[in-house]
Amino acid sequence: MAQYVLAIDQGTTSSRAIIFDHSGSIVSTGQLEHEQIFPRAGWVEHNPMEIWDNTREVIGQALSKANLTRHDIAAVGITNQRETAVVWDSTTGKPVYNAIVWQDTRTQPIVDRLAADGGVERFKQKVGLPLATYFSGTKIVWILENVEGAREKAEAGDLMFGTTDSWVLWNLTGGLEGGVHATDVTNASRTLFMDLETLQWDDEILSIFNVPKSMMPEIRSSSEVYGTVNEHSLLREVPIAGILGDQQAATFGQAAFDQGEAKNTYGTGNFLIFNTGTEIVHSKNGLLTTLGYKLGDAEPHYALEGSIAVTGALVQWLRDNLGMITSSEEIETLAATVDDNGGAYFVPAFSGLFAPYWRSDARGALVGLTRFVNKGHIARAALEATAFQTREVLDAVNADSGVPLTELKVDGGMIKNNLLMQFQADIIGVPVIRPVVAETTALGAAYAAGLAVGFWSTLDELRANWQEDSRWTPKLSAEESARQLRNWKKAVTKTFDWVDEDVL
Q1: pLDDT (tens digit, 9 = 90+) per residue, 201-241?
Q2: 39 exposure class (CB count in 10 Å sphere: 0-12, 13-18, 19+)
Q3: What is the maximum span of the chain, computed from C-alpha positions, in angstroms?
Q4: Each residue of 390-446: pLDDT tens digit?
Q5: I need a labelling partner for 349 at 20 to 30 A (CA). Which of 35, 67, 221, 318 fits?
Q6: pLDDT for the residue numbered 413
Q7: Is 16 annotated as contributing to ligand binding?
Q8: According to the annotation, is 429 in a ligand binding site?
């Protein structure tokens, strides 16, 4: 009898395969990074073929490390970087262009063109999202308008679009030999094209964007059998039974299944999701309305989301672009060499500002500099930027929901940073809680898949798996927290209105 579930976590910087047992504990992991491609300022791309090759290899790594075979795996779940757009030729199986990553800002002229009639909130009531470069829709338009022959192939019905979950699913289930072209409601809700109420592609919006409906994957629930792994894989005949976009997967992995529950993921960017239950709540404070999850034929659960573009990516930038540190872990050691930020504030608006501002004209700024400031202060300011941005999103969630959060569950790579977690508690004024299993994104995908095949039977069973590892309580005075937040908000205003016609 199969004792495990395997989750494929196709993330922004790497692809991983993680095998979980029935208690939700990690058995083994395989991981490979993929290249970050920056052809021009503001452009971010990935090679979809590299992602697919890496996905196959990490599956092999995870199985090998645990000495397991396909017979030990009850189901496969997929979670993925959302909004990143892959367009491929259904007759060759090859991408027509690199994947355009969620952080990419090249589509701003397309956003402006579409917003000329009705503004950036033109479609927000129906799809829950403002017009922004962040979402997949404008990326598809860019490929159709800029890749030679793409428009003609699309009109002929020969192109497929998908976020990376769809790309992995299609390949895993056979690709050209009968691959399944589908996505789940959570990923579909990040395209600008899905009606939140009907959970279907909206023909009128597709027409306005001039995107052929034939390109779009079938929208399915987050927990059902989509197909089985094809015969050429180590996992052949294993059912693929769960798909959740990474942030929704992390929420599911945190067992935040009910209205009023929330989590914050600290990764390349930060994403706070607040479960609004079966009710669609439209934000008045700069948050997104999105799908939380849908289990089979059950009613969908919705959520409010605060998306922050750059958090962990700022640490990577200090490492890779400036050489200030040689590994991401060193940022905490460097930041701990000083007692505070020395008056420096770092606003990492590298791709503009996401929630709650939605300012595509913003660019990064390091302000408050004096001769006193050293690299320790800059490291600390970089970490604090993550906490300040989270505070602003949390304020928006509290305003929209009317029910202030009393604690914040956290996950993602940055939560190993104790200095950051303490400052996060200090600046939001409520406890911050880290679970024992920090890989909640992959765990959520595993849970969705396991539920679909009966490996787990109820949500209560999953709740019982959740365990607290560490808790940070606020130590900073309310007055000092308010002072620092005031300075942060002042720093944010210095990033506005930077981009104009002659600035890259």
Answers
A1: 999 999 999 999 999 999 999 999 999 998 888 889 999 99
A2: exposed
A3: 66
A4: 999 999 988 888 878 888 999 888 899 999 999 999 999 999 999 988 888 999 999
A5: 35
A6: 84
A7: yes
A8: no
> 493 a known binding residue?
no
Q: How confident is the model at residue 504 (pLDDT cuts 50, 70, 90)?
A: low
DSSP string, 59-92: HHHHHHHTT--GGGEEEEEEEE-SS-BEEEETTT
Phi, psi of 179 (to 5 degrees): -60, 145
Q: Is there a binding annotation on residue 151?
A: no
Residue 419: name the closest of 356, 301, 340 by CA.
340
Could you identify the residue written with the tokens 């590892």? Answer: 469
What is the pTM for the complete model shown?
A: 0.86
Q: Tokens standing for 255?
A: 């067992």
pLDDT at 501: 63
The answer to whether 268 is a known ligand-binding residue is yes
Flag whether 247 is marked binding: yes
Q: Which two tokens stand for residue 404?
A: 């202030």
DSSP string, 308-353: ES-SHHHHHHHHHTS-S-SSTTHHHHHHTTSSS-TT-EEE--BTBB
Give me 463's structure tokens: 């709740």
- Is 50 annotated to bind ligand? no
Phi first, then psi, for residue 228 (nearest 5°) are: -115, 155
* Cα angle value 165/114/493 (rounded, 5°): 85
Q: Quick one: how far is CA 103 from the chain centroid? A: 10
Cβ–Cβ under 8 Å, residues 262 and 488? no
CA angle 193, 197, 200 (to 5 degrees): 45
Task: Give CA–CA dist 170/176, Å, rounded.
Answer: 8
Check whether 447 is labelled as a binding-site residue.
no
